[in-house]
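Input protein
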Amino acid sequence: MHQDTGGIVPEVAAREHLRAIDALTEKALGDAGCQLTEIDAIAATVGPGLIGCLLVGANYARGLALSAGLPFVGVNHLEGHVYANWLEEREATPEPELPAVVLVVSGAHSDLVLMEAHRRFRPLGRTIDDAAGEAFDKVARLLHLGFPGGPIIERVAKAGDPKAFPLPRAAVADRFDFSFSGLKTAVLRLVRELEKKGEVPVADVAASFQKAITEMLAEKTARAAAEHAVQTVLLGGGVAANLALREEIARRIGHPLRVPSPALCTDNGAMIGAAAFFALRHRGTEIPVAVRSDLKLA
């Protein structure tokens, strides 16, 4: 549906949430082989995000919790991306060790935070304009590749030369903030110039763009990890599924890197459940019950 419009239309997305949520809840319970009476709590995202979609999910979850006599847990969507790293056990380290530097990169967010302990986050930097995922989407649209842009650009870039076009890396005054609008504009100008000369080498442009954006993210993540006494570096969010980004960060850091499986990087219900689990276990920083489209991680 969103591929047809080249992006998400908020009103359409909210209507689809409303249409699907009841049947999806029933399916989830059926797949899990349990009854609502066996559930300990009901959780839903209360922000950040599109306000219409947030209202559908949070109000449905509150009603479900009230009817079943269960506690309702409001979850920060970004915290969900962080706690996706706790959904899969690894043989060497069953749980990520804290403190950790966390990079959350998605369609709407590019946040670098210090996770001092469970549910204790200190902001280090964030994007001052476009998010990394948004830049992927816009460049993919510019190259007529479709939506969402991240997976498509990663696939196309495999056939391209990442050194074909030297694209700029933005210098930002605050040490750990990001800026991607200049890179996006540089790609736009590059494509327009290439169009004047003839055919656009799409794979080379995609590879060069991907190299620039992953290096910008990796450089600041590695520097933050080096400057803070952390045990681990964690990634989360849809862009964290990008293999080039994972490899670039792993190459630059001197700490263990934990990244969820690609299916758990993109938005999913399991990560919201994981964040709710730790919210119940480590009470302290409470999340507002009312939905907020601009809710921050820290």
Observations:
- The first helix runs from residue 2 to 5.
- The first strand starts at residue 42 and ends at 47.
